[in-house]
Amino acid sequence: MESIFHEKQEGSLCAQHCLNNLLQGEYFSPVELSSIAHQLDEEERMRMAEGGVTSEDYRTFLQQPSGNMDDSGFFSIQVISNALKVWG
């Protein structure tokens, strides 16, 4: 190996830096990870709707912020896991 890739930490984008350092390149951006988080949010919303869109649980779920990302740069372990799926 010629050199070790190290993406310097910027802000609170720990998941992005972790993935890129693990994969040894600039493979993921906040935009790409946000897209994965939104996909997970939609899948979760659809699962919750299966219990009835008029249920208290569903209405409560819709009022909560995403558990997969936030404005600080946090991404959940599910986002990281889904990002790595493209690598098998």
TrEMBL record:
PROSITE patterns per the UniProt record, alphabetical: JOSEPHIN (PS50957)
Pfam families membership: Josephin
E.C. number: 3.4.19.12
Record has Nucleotide-binding as a keyword: no
Domain Josephin residue range list: 1-88
A GO biological-process term: proteolysis
InterPro entries: Ataxin-3, Josephin
Primary location group: nucleus
Top-level lineage group: Eukaryota
Record's protein name: ubiquitinyl hydrolase 1
Species of provenance: Homo sapiens (Human)
